[in-house]
Amino acid sequence: MRDPDIPRLSLRADPRLPSSPGFWRSALRGPWFTSVLGLVLLVGITVLFVTGLVSYAAYNPDLSPVNDKTPDKGLLGFYLFSWPTGPHWLYRLNQGVHVTLGVTLIPVLLAKLWSVVPRLFTLPPARSLTHALERISLLLLVGGGLFEFVTGVLNVQLDYVFPGSFYRLHFYGAWVFFAAFTAHAVLKLPMALRNLRQLREERNDLVSPRPNEPTVSRRGALWFVGGGSLLLFATTVGQSFDGPLRRTALLAPHGAGEPGSGPNGFQINKTAAYAGISPAQTGEDAWRLVVTGRTGTVRLSRAQLAELPLHSAALPIACVEGWSTSDQWWRGVRLRDLAALVGYEDDPPDVFVESLQQRGSFRKAALRANQVADPRSLLALYVNGEELSPDHGHPARIIVPAAPGVLNTKWVARLTFGDL
Predict the structure, then answer these.
(1) What does the pLDDT read at residue 1?
(2) Least confident of 145-149, 160-164, 239-243, 320-324
(3) Sequence-ordered alpha helix ranges (H) in 279-333
(4) What pLDDT, on the 0 to 100 scale, is given for residue 212?
(5) Domain endpoint, select from 186, 213, 234
(6) Count of domains observed in the chain
(7) Do 202 and 337 reside in the same domain of the chain?
(8) Rounded distance, CA 201 to CA 223, Å?
(9) How many Å apart are CA 22 and CA 24, to the nearest integer?
(10) Are residues 84 and 222 in the same domain?
């Protein structure tokens, strides 16, 4: 008897064409195999989506246009909230999970796409309105999934080549992909759970009517996929740690050990040379910090800043690309004390930070009032007992607990306190 799940047209199709079930000969394909992969992705992609949205919120995009890399997000930004300063490792954990999990899931995603590829060629394209909607959601799911993973990996590898802003494309792509993913999960989850409970593989459009002799079992194939994911995990996760473990992050751009030794010998993203910072700009005679607020403007040399009350905080640097450092010991002037110099003794407001940086994104950034008020938020002059090196932001840089690395502005030139 003909399987009702397989269209009659496909049974008569030329077996040399991918629209024919006979074209796909692997004995591994089947509902059990694809259901296991689908349930792994159901959990993993949900975590990826949530951590991605949280990462976007960490930039405080509703605070200032310079923070908002997706200004036309509209209703898609309904969930945004003011980013907190505690726990101080919050962004480090969130982004480490997001990037490491995304890389780890690549073999699972590819195996899942391989397992269902016959359905992409099924004829006729649509047998009913419901079937047409399912096919459209499948195309969005496959296309969106590949787009999100490819753009994410390229951004992590510092080799982003797509036209347009990564933030905007990745943000919109995530919503399109997850909408299709949710629709697909709602339609397929009951069937996937039923497939897992069955002892025998039922025949459907994924099972070849003329399978080749298997060279590995389905469980063996799952172990192979899992091994690939474990290998990617082991060669990525180290970028979130210091010391010898960082050298295991072979697939991460910041996985080659510490870039030097001594108090300033920890990871950086942009060097002073890349940012266009010259010694002439940062010398003691040339550089002045300009602080503007309610009562006017104050200009301070680095020596004058060093004479103000100095405070210390142990905080990490964590980047959107997934890498981070352990806590470094920073010392400098509290941002709320600088706000007090220009008329905000009791109620430090938001602050607009401008850098000497000439190239690259986030030359300017805004911080919320709660970030300014936190006693651990500093205009740092020293790190680990030594003056900041040029690559770490000499003569002064921002350091704020739980903030993305790009908001910890280096080579600070101006602070403007007040309504943004």
Answers:
(1) 42
(2) 160-164
(3) 279-282, 302-307
(4) 85
(5) 234
(6) 2
(7) no
(8) 19
(9) 5
(10) yes
CA-based Rg of the chain, rounded to a whole angstrom?
A: 26
- Based on the domain organization, do 401 and 310 belong to the same domain? yes
Instruction: For residues 81 and 218, state if they share a domain.
Output: yes
Q: Which one-letter amino acid corresponds to residue 416?
A: T
Residues 322 and 208 in one domain: no
Range list of H helices, 2-128: 8-11, 31-57, 90-104, 106-116
Pair 81, 134 in one domain: yes
Three-state DSSP at 332 gives strand
- Examine residue 258 and state whether it is found in any structural domain, yes or no: no
Give per-residue pLDDT as tens, 4-52. Answer: 444 444 445 567 787 777 788 888 888 889 999 999 999 999 999 999 9
Same domain, 293 and 155: no
Phi, psi of 314, rounded to the nearest 5 degrees? -95, 105
Average pLDDT estimate for 101-109: 97
Alpha carbon separation from 118 to 113, 122, 299 (Å, rounded):
10, 7, 68
Query: How is residue 411 annotated by DSSP?
Result: S
Q: Domain end: 215, 234, 253, which one? A: 234
Rounded-to-integer distance, Cα 290 and Cα 379, Å: 13
Instruction: For 360-403, give the secondary structure using H, E and C.
Output: CCCCEEEECHHHHHCCCCEEEEEECCEECCHHHCCCCEEECCCC
The 8-class DSSP code of residue 327 comes to: -
Kindly report the backbone phi and psi dihedral angles of residue 117, in degrees, each rounded to the nearest multiple of 5, phi listed first.
-60, -30
Of 53, 43, 49, 76, which Cα lies nearest the Cα of 177?
49
Question: For position 202, what pLDDT does the model report?
Answer: 63
Which residue range forms the structural domain that includes residue 384? 272-417
